[in-house]
Amino acid sequence: MKKENIMLSLLIPGPQQPGNSIDIYLEPLIEDLIHLWNNGETTYDAFSKTTFNLKALLLWTISDFPTYGNLAGCKKKGRILSGHEISKNLKNFKNDFGNLKRSARKRKRTECTGLGSDNDESSSESDEDEEDEVKLDEDELSRWKKRSIFFKLPYWEDLPVRHNLDVMHVERNVAASIVSTLLHCGKSKDGLNARKDLEVLGIRKDLHPRTKGKRTYLPPAPWSLSKAEKKIFCTRLVDFKGPDGYCSNIARGVSIKDCKVTGLKSHDYHVLIQQLLPIALKGLSPKGLRLAILRLCAFYNLLCQRVIDREQILVMEAEIVETICMFERFFPPSFFDIMVHLTVHLGRETRLGGPVHFRWMYPFERYMKVLKDFVRNPARPEGNGYENSSSCCHPEYGCSGTLCRHLQDSNGRCRRDASMLWRMHTDKFASWLKQQIPLDSDSHGKILKWLAYGPRCIARSYTGYIVNGQRFHTMSVDRKNHNSGVYYEATAICRASAKDISQVVDLVSYYGRVVDIILLEYNVFYVPLFRCNWAVMGNEVKIEDGFTLVNMSQSQVSFLREPYILASQAKQVFYLREDAESSWHVVMRGPSRRYKNDLDDGIGEIGPLPSNVDMDIHMDESENARTDCEGIYV
Prior knowledge:
Blueprint: H1 23-38, E1 41-45, E2 50-54, E3 61-62, H2 65-72, H3 83-89, H4 118-124, H5 127-132, H6 138-141, E4 163-164, H7 167-183, H8 192-201, E5 210-212, E6 215-218, H9 227-239, E7 254-255, E8 260-261, H10 266-280, H11 287-303, H12 310-330, H13 338-353, H14 362-373, H15 399-410, H16 412-416, H17 418-436, H18 446-453, E9 460-462, E10 464-467, E11 470-473, E12 485-494, E13 504-521, E14 526-534, E15 541-544, E16 547-550, E17 564-566, E18 571-577, E19 585-589, E20 632-633
């Protein structure tokens, strides 16, 4: 959904906004939609140079939650009904539009006309009609403010999803509630009124407010962080550097001195809850609380992937209910507003409507920013460096297997020891290929002949390169962004020890940073290479709480012979330092901008969370109040 494909009729909001009376403004649209469904419109096909009858329907609406109530006509609470049930319940509902001045007394509940007593129905209708008659109770009818004008469309009540819950706003509000409650800043769900609710309910007596002199003391709760933990949390957010185009500068909204997070945009909270929040909380809060937050973040991470699995979505729908129950064990009742509840329904809508990228508000919000830039007077809005990028063909030929067979036949040690075979193959492959394919050969192609001949002695060096839809920079360029992180999955010989001669071939993951970008010239084509500093497997790579940690401050002696990889083999990652005194960094996957060939990787707009996290780990049965944390005076 690009801005050139968006047709927007703007209603300027304010005190006189339409609100529930928006159906009046939608009447011309509904008339056109009925015409497009019943009769269609003659349309010219530029490809076949013919005309045809075009018919169209309205699939669903995309809006934030307040507008959801205005369009659907409900008061945004109650159980989910099908389109047929809603249409039948509100068949005789009397709409009352306009902002008429009423008396000071309460407005009477809108009555549904045509519902008489049982005697009247029996006298006017047959027994068959009485069985089909829907008996509406007052509680059910009071949920509705109007009968939506969209039910004039013949197909509207048959649609499984009519109005989309906006994932962008739900995700943003849930993430903001978690962060503000943990840090006790902004719109925190913890406070004096929240603790008084616990006192009224008679639960969690350890967290009830206590009067100490002229002030009230709030004991530390499971969701509370100590001052030292808050500083570590904020420091991790400030030190975070993502790849180019990943997110805005989150550090601008984080204050280490005051331990506050304010002024972040919706996409910043999107990045927080997708990847950054579980890593920023690593080792800070109780284990059970961290597990609950990690499960919620994993739900949103899977929900926002470009490719979704319907069976996995069904599992997510059941798991998110358990996750909300886990939140109830740690967070106060005031935390659970309507936005937390709407999270339960997002899985169902994704299963019925498809990926959320086609149904959320980000394209429209960004286009609104474009429109607002044209406004000179907000009071009267109605008046108013070079990056080398190339593609290179890397042909694969069957020469490697031929050389291996030759080495095994001519050398008995290569036949017995796989590591020796691999080492000699690496050393002799280039010279062997040059002998097998001479430059004046007539039986081989031009590319293969120049590949066997070798590159020129002089190569070009760059500080930036774009490949596979990702922008890479060398470490010398990393300032505000972090584009030098590299992840490479290589096929290597694995063995149990140095004396093991029965090695096996397996995939090994390597993590590093780009030091230099070299472009080799083979006369008729170019091959880009990345020279990297790598983390030594075993000593400098470890797994903790499901996250991969690397330490690249050690010696690079083991990689002096082979520090290079092809640019096409590199996948982008970025690192977040565990804390200021530690040399370990947490690995996070980078975003991909490719739409055609990245389906096998499963990379969405935000890289996936670690898949090896044990979600069924036993939670600690701690007390309601934390003993290792300070309380709050209000």
